[in-house]
């Protein structure tokens, strides 16, 4: 009995040791787990909205618009409340944008996370990876302001037209993504998303180098992925479309050559599906 217990403990310790080694070799797994949790929460949120018959028409920002013919009286209390309410969709839209970056972009950072983990001391790995992710998210957060305002401005100018016109614009965006994917510069742009930079192993310079590296990768990823993120905004953050786009981007990053035509065909297929959907909705 003692022999069996000792053997069992040895197997457990060996198993835990293997897990620690795997986590040390693959520090990106923790980040992928975080993104997976985000996807699960988004799925259940969408499922709950569907089961309660809650229909989301637009996720874009909305603000009060003056209508000709109405009395133009000013009430400080009412105006303050209206301003406060107009900030709510702004904050909600920005929060949704950041969540989308966590879910879609973090899984693409395997090589960058591994580079940060191997460049610093073992005890500083987790903190350095978090700092890198914060710096990586910062350019996306700033760019998100424009990504939210462009569809909003389009919806205001096209208010007199059918609502599915915004979906047609999203389809045109995916056509542009296809053309960009087939352009000869695409390989260079993708390689810049996986470049490495020197990171000091310790001290205050480690923080500076890690933060700078995160900013650099974030900016490079914006140059690569803006062409598919913008159509998603016009499509009102459709959950299924987000999943399909994420899957295509993952395949493009890890499983096909950088000069492959497959991602372009996928973007063109999405554009065709959206155009057909718009055409059917008119009948």
Number of helices: 10
Helix content: over 70%
Q: What's the SSE pattern?
A: HHHHHHHHHH
Number of domains: 1
What distance separates the N and C termini?
A: 76 Å
Low-pLDDT parts are 54-80
Tally of extended strands?
Answer: 0
**Mean pLDDT rating:** 81
The description of the largest β-sheet is: none
| Cα gyration radius (Å) | 23 Å
Q: Which word captures the global form?
A: globular
Class of secondary structure makeup:
mainly alpha
Name the beta content range.
under 5%
Secondary structure elements and their pairing?
Blueprint: H1 2-25, H2 28-51, H3 76-104, H4 110-119, H5 125-157, H6 165-181, H7 186-192, H8 204-234, H9 239-254, H10 262-281
List descriptors:
283 residues; mainly alpha; 75% helix
Word description of this protein:
This protein is an all-alpha fold and 283 residues long. The protein has one domain (26-65, 72-281). 75% of the residues lie in helices and 0% in strands. It contains ten helices and no strands. It is globular, with a radius of gyration of 23 Å.
Sum this structure up briefly.
The protein is mostly helical and 283 residues long.
């Amino acid at each position: 009995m003692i022999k069996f217990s000792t053997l069992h403990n040895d197997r457990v310790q060996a198993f835990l040791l293997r897990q620690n080694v795997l986590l040390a070799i693959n520090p990106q797994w923790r980040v992928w787990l975080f993104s997976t949790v985000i996807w699960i929460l988004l799925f259940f949120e969408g499922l709950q909205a569907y089961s309660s018959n809650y229909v989301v028409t637009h996720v874009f920002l909305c603000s009060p618009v003056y209508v000709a013919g109405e009395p133009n009286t000013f009430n400080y209390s009412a105006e303050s409340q209206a301003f406060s309410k107009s900030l709510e969709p702004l904050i909600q839209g920005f929060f949704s944008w950041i969540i989308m970056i966590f879910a879609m972009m973090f899984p693409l950072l395997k090589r960058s996370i591994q580079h940060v983990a191997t460049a610093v001391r073992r005890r500083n790995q987790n903190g350095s990876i978090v700092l890198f992710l914060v710096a990586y998210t910062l350019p996306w957060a700033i760019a998100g302001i424009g990504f939210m305002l462009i569809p909003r401005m389009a919806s205001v100018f096209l208010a007199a037209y059918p609502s599915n016109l915004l979906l047609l614009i999203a389809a045109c965006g995916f056509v542009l993504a296809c053309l960009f994917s087939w352009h000869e510069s695409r390989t260079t742009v993708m390689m810049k998303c996986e470049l490495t930079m020197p990171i000091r192993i310790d001290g205050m310079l480690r923080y500076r180098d890690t933060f700078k590296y995160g900013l650099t990768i974030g900016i490079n990823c914006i140059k690569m992925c803006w062409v598919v993120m913008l159509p998603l905004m016009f499509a009102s953050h459709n959950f299924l479309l987000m999943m399909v786009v994420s899957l295509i981007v993952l395949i493009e990053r890890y499983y096909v050559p950088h000069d492959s035509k497959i991602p372009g065909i996928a973007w063109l297929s999405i554009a065709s599906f959206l155009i057909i959907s718009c055409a059917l909705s008119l009948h």
